[in-house]
Amino acid sequence: MTQTTTLHDRTVGQIAAQLPGASGVFRRFGIDFCCHGDVPLAEAANRRNLDLGALETALSALDPAAAPDAPQDTGALIDHIQTRYHATHRRQIPELIELSRKVEAVHANHPEVPRGLSDALHRIWGELEVHMKKEELVLFPAMRRQAADRLAVPISEMRHDHDDHGAFLDQVAQLTHDYTPPQDACRSWQALYAGAAQLKADLMEHIHLENNVLFPRFETTA
User: Fold this and answer.
1) List of residues 6+ apart from 106 with CB closer than 8 A
2) Residue 38: which domain range?
3) 42 with 16: CB under 8 angstroms?
4) pLDDT tens string 29-53
5) Are 20 and 113 contained in the same domain?
């Protein structure tokens, strides 16, 4: 199949940006398509000890002509990022901080308690709020004006922030045993891990749309 043969020559970020539904496949296989989107597909599969053929089969089953996962127009894409992801993070992270504090306090003596999770969430919340404000007040307005010649430095800074956000996701995965609560977990504990897993999915998609779709439109090539 022609689509399968072309996958070898593309990075996971390019595939996620160009093939509707690919990001969902990558999440299912545990592939980082946002912060490490510059990795070729075969290398990404090798890093995860995955069957490359199975991964390619899953991607080839997607319809390239399907509706895009996000708006294609730059202005509409920026609007989508702000309403779907910025607004969502501002709602979900404070709720997770409060829930995590409750779980850590009530189950302080449990051997699997996610000790330190609330601190990690509080730290990323502060960093992410500053990051989003920079985008909303400086970067996104410049992009709407098509001021590409002045955006190399701020885009580089945003990409660096995204790497830090990816490290945070790795930390949360470790603290939560990959978002798997113990068998005796209460409903609050289960809700915390479900919410943390949703935050991971949302933040990965958010970073992907910026790193692999939006930012490249304003980065000059050598």
Assistant:
1) 186, 188
2) 2-60
3) no
4) 999 888 888 899 999 899 889 999 9
5) no
